[in-house]
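Reagents: none. Just compute today. MFS transporter.
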Amino acid sequence: MLSDVTQTTETPARDARRRTAPEARRRPGIHRAWIVAAVTFVTIIGGAAFNSLPGLLIDPLNTEFGWSRGEIGLAVSIDMALYGLTAPFAAALMDRFGIRRVVVVALSAVAAGALASVWMTAAWQLMLYWGLLVGLGTGSMAMAFSATVTNRWFAARRGLVTGVLTAAGASGQLVFLPLCAWIVDRHGWRPASVTVALAALAVVPFVWLLMRDHPADVGLAPYGGEYVEKPAPARGVASRTVRVLFDAARTGPFWLLAGSFAICGASTNGLIRTHFVPSAHDHHMPITAAASLLAVIGIFDIIGTVFSGWLTDRFDARRLLAVYYALRGVSLLFLPILLQPTVEPPMVFFIVFYGLDWVATVPPTLALCREQYGEDSAIVFGWVLASHQVGAAMVAFLGGVARDHFGSYNVVWYAAGALCAVAALMALMIRRVRGPVDTVTT
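Predicted 3D structure written out:
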């Protein structure tokens, strides 16, 4: 039996905010918050289906249409850039129009983009469908989605819920990468694109029927908390998001954080997620084997992120970032000699290490944002996350151009390794905050 309202000693002001109607009191059974969290988990998995696709389709599209890898990479880069630039405003959209409406429209945009690509005949259509539609759709379901759900529906167990919802993206990669790779290998790229569209559409009914914007919509208190009235639709949140960006941009630590995190995105989503499979295929590794290796990264990035959070509570976040980026750079220098037609133990070691390091940079980067910018740290981190996706977008495009020009990805791996060394130095250059935390004036 779960209680919807925590029994505590009330102050007069708090008691005035409490609702005394029967529906706001104890109810038997599972709290509605867990149902909302489950729907959110499934939605993130459905939305993450597209992220499994681009790296698998570079070679098939190049073969069928003759489009260069640079053109295909440009479409992926548009998607990643829009994902990053939409993310800081996603929370504002949800505050203004409601979680359910925003997510349904976002899933529909992803499905429309994936499905329309089945009939494309020109490269500009690829950029429109994959880049614009899917980029806006996935960006609207970025970290702000899980953060908004957690903050509204849970007063207790927020850490657990946040961790589980963060893992949903990796779970989606684990599910869809091998599946889409098998479909592409056996039936071609079009059925794989249709599969992604159907995965996004399949979630829409669950979101519309089971998702609610606020516990007050169903007369409940947040899990482990007290009943509060649903606030009026927020206004001016988007303008504050922009103001915080301009204020933070006048400080040195912001550019060091954004620059290093851009390199993080470049060496993960932009490089490995987009170009690992075609690079492995260049070395005659089966596409299903290469995709399975990427799926393994999805397993270990969960472990790496949790462990990195534990380390961040105990060690200097700057030094942790420096170590993460330095080790990532060294591993990329060895990758060209590890790519073989078959999966050998050294390659497995690289995949496990890269998975552990994949998003291990997030906890210390978030901790540094909090240290530097106080109460505005969440918004600042949203913009730092946008830089992550812009970095990913640039390498998704430039990596394809380099492959077209040089005939291999070797120079891309070496350049990315050098960039990671720069990121390590940038992390060490971030100043320490002494005394009270400075906040950005808005």
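The domain at 29-223 is CATH 1.20.1250.20 (Growth Hormone; Chain: A;).
Action item: order primers for follow-up constructs.
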